[in-house]
Description:
- This protein is of the alpha/beta class and 326 residues long.
- 35% of the residues lie in helices and 25% in strands.
- It has an eight-stranded mixed sheet. Strands 3-4-5 form a three-stranded parallel sheet, sandwiched between helices. It has a two-stranded parallel sheet with strand order 1-2.
Amino acid sequence: MLGVARIATHQVIPAMQRGEWSEVVAIASRDEAKASAAAGPLGIRRAYGSYDALIDDPDVEAIYNPLPNHLHVPWTIRALEAGKHVLCEKPIGLDVADAKKLIDARDRTGRLVQEAFMVRTHPQWTTAREMVQQGRIGDLRSISGYFSYFNRDAGNIRNIPDYGGGALMDIGCYLIHTSRMIFDREPARVIGLIDRDPDMRVDRLTSMILDFEIGHAIGTCSTQVVAYQRMHIVGTSGRIEIEIPFNAPADRPCRIFVDDGRDLFGGGIETITIPAVDQYTLQGDLFSKAVREGGPVAYPLEDTVANMEVIEAVFRSAQTARWQKP
């Protein structure tokens, strides 16, 4: 584990430790004391005072990279070149060119690398996708999503433009990723509208429309409104609503609502309860299993680049006030 980021110490590491295919053997920080302080409560045997020292440990087979966005690509390449496989937090790069560097490094080193969009492993999403593919809601026509929280701390990495901060990169990427996954194709064009924080200059409110030709996805993300998230998947004869689509709790069941539209008061709603699972455990085991069995990973970097191309197109559209092709 590179770094002692909260997502690593509070979510990813404990989840991986509960997995069948993963063992967390080392953690690194630029401050050895911080690494040791994190390692102790988590029962991790080795703590390093530099990322290089961990990467050079011959007993470490794979790296999880939860560093700030601008450090994803350089440290992932460093690990690949040292012979390690890498599971890297999203978004994997700052732009398309950045992400494409990893394809070159993957092909050159023969190591496995994957972007950590953990939501793809959660049964609520696999169930929703299967229902769409099986025609449960008729022909898919529309997806709408919302994802937000409030954070105006100028020192937080999510509010620093040079570190890849802002709503679209941090959470809007989920709206794009899951819409592409459910439509099972790429958008032909996108349009975006952005409101930036006047002081920090990161996008604090971003809305977008993705035109998939057979239907549309609309989404809004914000880092400066009340915390909320929801996804609606709408077809010609029904709709699916995912109650907590992205931060699915590991300690309680999740719910999907499937509505046949017979009345506006919910008389046609079926509630599907998904038993409690930890999507970080599932993600870690899928990646580790791919390492053990020689690959491939479940979600290749080519998909990662395609997602980044849509993100870039939304940014371009907001600047030009025109539709943009990814």
